[in-house]
Description:
Helices cover about 60% and strands about 0% of the residues. It starts with 5 loop residues before the first helix and ends in an 11-residue tail after the last helix. By secondary structure, it is an all-alpha fold. The chain has 6 helices and no strands. It is flat and about 80 Å long. The chain has helices at about 5-10, 10-25, 30-40, 40-70, 75-105, 140-155. Among the domains are: about 10-40, no CATH class; about 40-110.
Amino acid sequence: MRLRSARSERSEPRSRKRQLACLRRGLVGDVRCGVVARLLTPRWLVRHAVVLLLVGVFLWLGWWQVRRAAGGNALSFGYAVEWPVFAVFVVAMWAKEVRAELRGHLEQEPPAPPTPQPDAPGYLPFRAVVARPEITDDSDPQLAAYNRYLGWLAANPDRRPADYPG
């Protein structure tokens, strides 16, 4: 049994339209039809355009900084390296998203944990019990004095620490 995510159920009509388009073009068994069609949806076309725009702008800004650095602005050498790094980052994120989209149909949602059935045979109710060590003030006089001070502060919230009588 193959599980479907909410996303695949939502896009079912769109995938059906893609299948019909592939059928009309005679590309039924062609792997490219499914892969390419998934990356040519309106949402992905906008993503591709934004990536191309950002990479172009970042490379242009890097070249602009190289020209400024050649004109005597030493700080521009750092920016001339930085802008192409931004462009590489955009391409890396785009590639990561494309790979995730292409792998998306292979991933399945993990099954939900079974709900407890109190009347089922063998059901044992479980409640976590936290064991806390017994702390006594007898072994450390400074700790005992500090705990008395904290107790006084808790009992007298309107008083200041300087008013402590001890």
